[in-house]
């Protein structure tokens, strides 16, 4: 297989930046990376991360996942419109009590997280079908398989992404097109930091006092502990994404954080849904010592694993 052109979205920071830079610096020079972002004014960190690969194995282009014309213009600018691998990464986050979220904000999130993916796939899929080759790699989340407290809307958008890809994968396979959902758990990025920073000062007047208290005094402190114990770096997620892209038989789903797998395994262990629901409820509201002890153990395992 020759050099493959990889189109990556959401490359101004975080996972998208790390994936683009890692692919561009591939020692075997297997990739030509088209790293895209909505605002080219934010290209500085990517240019720095790309280093000597800039304008050699990596080029930066403008692409707004919320605009069909922007996507088409970007794809049309590529030789033969060829995209061998699409890495859909652009996304928005949202946490907090449902009553405090506006419908407009929910629609904006879905417009990027779900419809952005749909627009991109719709643009590149016909060419991939015609060439009888391609790989659609989608940055999903463990929250696309397991809903979590106060992540109602974000989780819903990732569930939509998972259903979309699972359905499409069957048809795509007929045309020798692979589909992979990359499912990170907590990732320590500027994206996540901003989401939680905004949550600290969120207006909770739209909900009742008990819900506001649960959000501020239980959810936010728990989330910080989870990120501190289980959080991956964007580079760690990028490394696993590259492995998926280079795999001869890539999986439909790939969780990047093995320490988080027991959480998602609960769902598959009980088709009725009672086991994960009961477990998360008790872990959150009744057994905080068990929760803290579990995180401490997982953090230790992560440190041990990192030393190998």
UniProtKB/TrEMBL annotation:
Keyword Oxidoreductase applies: yes
Organism for this UniProt entry: Notothenia coriiceps (black rockcod)
Active-site residues per Swiss-Prot or TrEMBL entry: 154
Chain positions recorded as NADP(+) binding sites: 10-38, 64, 158
GO molecular function: estradiol 17-beta-dehydrogenase [NAD(P)+] activity
GO BP terms in the entry: estrogen biosynthetic process
Pfam families found in the cross-reference section: adh_short (PF00106)
InterPro entries: 17beta_DH, NAD(P)-bd_dom_sf, Sc_DH/Rdtase_CS, SDR_fam
Cellular component terms (Gene Ontology): cytosol
Protein name: Retinol dehydrogenase 8
Lipid metabolism keyword on record: yes
Family indicated by similarity: Belongs to the short-chain dehydrogenases/reductases (SDR) family.
Taxonomic lineage of the native organism: Eukaryota, Metazoa, Chordata, Craniata, Vertebrata
SUPFAM superfamilies for this protein: NAD(P)-binding Rossmann-fold domains
Residues involved in substrate binding: 141
UniProt keyword list: Lipid metabolism, Oxidoreductase
